[in-house]
Design a protein that fits this description.
The chain is α+β, with helices and mostly antiparallel strands. It has helices spanning 29-49, 55-75, 86-108; strands at residues 8-15, 18-25, 80-81, 84-85. Strand 1 (8-15) and strand 2 form a beta hairpin. Helix 1 (29-49) packs across helix 2.
């Protein structure tokens, strides 16, 4: 019996409303689509934060931000418990609490 051939496929993807054709292995399709969605989200966040930025600048800023995240993750101490970095999780929980408190404080002024 022959093994499965992991053929190359071409996908049409969109980043900031522009279409691109991207080739990948069929087995990597889901990962590529997830990466496209993540990059598109980051590019939209950058565009919203700086209305005057051109597409080239948005792409470069998104690439720098993502590269920075990757390098930070590689350098982070691997104090993992059950697959979760407890320090990062605790920091995110504190940030969420602060955001919730800020929203709730604003609601008090409405009543």
């Amino acid at each position: 019996m022959m093994g499965t051939v992991d053929r190359t496929v071409t996908l049409d993807v969109q980043l900031l409303g522009r279409e691109y054709k991207v080739a990948c292995r069929d087995s990597e399709r889901a990962d590529l689509l997830e990466a496209v969605a993540y990059l598109d989200q980051r590019m939209r966040e950058i565009r919203a934060a700086s209305k005057t930025a051109g597409a080239d600048r948005i792409v470069v800023m998104a690439a720098l931000n993502i590269a920075n995240e990757l390098l930070r993750e590689r350098k982070a101490p691997q104090a993992l418990t059950g697959g979760v970095d407890t320090a990062v999780a605790q920091q995110r929980i504190q940030s969420m609490h602060a955001a919730i408190d800020g929203v709730l404080a604003g609601q008090d002024k409405l009543f």
